[in-house]
Amino acid sequence: MRSLPLTGADRHAMLAAIGVDSVDALFRDVPEAVYQTTPLPDLPTHADEIAVERRLNVLAARNRPAGAGPCFLGAGAYRHHLPAAVDALIQRGEFMTAYTPYQPEISQGTLQAMFEFQTQVALLTGMEVANASLYDGASACAEAVLMAGRVTRRRRVVLSGSLHPHWRETVLTATRFRDVEVVAAPVDPWGHESLTARLDRDTACVVVQNPDVFGHVRDLTPLAEACHAQGALLVVAVSEVVSLGLLPPPGEMGADIVVGEGQSLGNPLSFGGPYLGLFATREAFVRQMPGRLAGATVDAEGRRGFVLTLATREQHIRREKATSNICTNSALCALAFSIHLTLLGEGGFRHLAALNHARAVTLADRLAALPGVELLTPAFFNEFTLRLPKRADRLVKRLAARCNILAGVPAARLWPEHDELGHLLLVAVTETNTDEDLDAVCRAIEGSL
After folding, report:
1. Residues 335 and 223 in one domain
2. Are 130 and 122 in contact (CB under 8 A)?
3. How far apart, in whole angstroms, are the C-alpha atoms of residue 425 and residue 392?
């Protein structure tokens, strides 16, 4: 028997009360062209629980987990070692079931965790203030663009051609129905891009990624100076937060807003989420910052306490004063980030970054020595781009099927419309890659070429 509480008579009475004659009428605004009018193939109309479990297990077995063999995937999502203590702590009931801290008197633990997270992000990015996280790096990037428009009262936005295409698409989606002009520079795998010439007095901000999607690392100081000379803001995007343990923080190079993806710390790959967005800026812009800001204070008896200092969505303040409709700050993912970073400490974090870079340099040198292989990124952190004598997507599929190796992300997967990028392969190396992994991928690529 199906566990449905309403009878046919109940449904008829409800439909009559709202003035429609069928359930289908409730969906009349959905175009008929997108309706699925026939049963989905290979799906039974019903099955018992054990049969469903067996079927789902068969489907799940078709997935190849990143940890099932040598893995060199990156392009915005990175496999790092996660200490067992992270999961053990975030699964405690007081963290796992915590809700939005509307009442500070009963939410001190959650608010302090947010405050410590903000402090860590501000230190990593070299900025003065950070919020309590956003959905992910891509949505944080879109929020930065909207914030820059509010701060400068301008509508023109320049996106680097080496910004991750998924982040670029998120920006385009968020600005589609707003009075924002988005100028996207051409894709540049060689690192020759110059954005200064695209600046003018109507530019609200320039968005540039460092390291960029191809792995190039740059000194952004000259670009920051050019932006400020035109009255524009510099937004720096960081998809691999571990790089901040080795590279100068964006704030030291003149960034006005720093956004990032925090997945690398405390959060597994998980087939693409949930992740968490990092967002930091200058204190002068704090009232235009999206999301939440936890602050420290003292109570009437002088004891340290924590409160929500700013909450900028419509639910908290008047709609006309809201800076964002962002509804979630990924608090559990942010807590995992903070725990992992705390376990590492400053010295451990720097060592982790150095180890990532060293292992990536080792593999890049070995692969670049293969006949017909060219390294396009002379300066990189833990991810680099190779130009192969064959199509990269075919090589990746061949190595996955025959050698159980995930050799990297073909550029054609990210930019299918750019056939000229078909021979480019993005390769990421982290502390999880052993010497045996490096040997295996070098042998496999050499054999395939």
Report:
1. yes
2. yes
3. 6
pLDDT at residue 2 tops 80: no
Distance CA 202, CA 154 (A): 6
Q: What would the 3-class secondary structure string for 142-174 be? A: HHHHHHHHHHHCCCEEEECCCCCHHHHHHHHHH
DSSP 327-374: ----HHHHHHHHHHHHHHHHHHHHHHHHHHHHHHHHHHHHHHTSTT-E
In a domain, 4, yes or no: no
Q: Closest Cα partner for 218 from 197, 200, 194, 241? A: 194
C-alpha span between 207 and 301 (Å, rounded): 46
Per the structure, the complete domain to which residue 128 belongs is given by 84-340
Query: Is 394 domain-assigned?
Result: yes
For residues 377 and 323, membership in a common domain is answered with no
pLDDT band at 143 (very low <50, low <70, confident <90, very high): very high
Beta-bridge partner residues of 182: 157
Closest by alpha carbon to 380, among 406, 353, 407, 405? 353
Q: Which residues lie below 8 Å from residue 35, measured CB to CB, with a gap of 6+?
A: none
Average pLDDT over residues 225-252: 98
Residues 366 and 273 in one domain: no
Domain count, the chain: 2
* Residue where a domain stops, chosen among 321, 340, 359: 340
Name which of 52-61, 97-106, 375-384 the model is least confident about: 97-106
Which H/E stretch holds residue 395?
Answer: helix 392-403
Q: Look at 149 and 40; give whichever has higher pLDDT.
A: 149
Within a 13 Å sphere around the CA of 138, how many CA atoms are in the beta-carbon half? 19
Rounded Cα gap, residues 222 and 239, in angstroms: 21
Q: What is the CA radius of gyration of the chain?
A: 24
Kind of pairing, strands 277-281 and 257-261? antiparallel
Antiparallel, parallel or unpaired: β 257-261 and 233-238: parallel
Cα angle 343-341-93, degrees, rounded to a multiple of 5: 75
Q: Is the pLDDT of residue 325 over 80?
A: no
Enumerate residues 6+ apart whose C-beta is below 8 A from 109: 94, 95, 98
Cα–Cα distance, 232 to 349 (Å, whole number): 33
Residue 1: predicted pLDDT: 46
Residue 317 has a pLDDT of: 61
pLDDT digits (tens, 9 = 90+) for 273-285: 899 999 999 999 9
From 340, 368, 384, give the residue that closes a domain: 340
DSSP bridge pairs for 129: 281
Question: Of 448, 399, 449, 393, which Cα lies nearest the Cα of 426?
Answer: 393
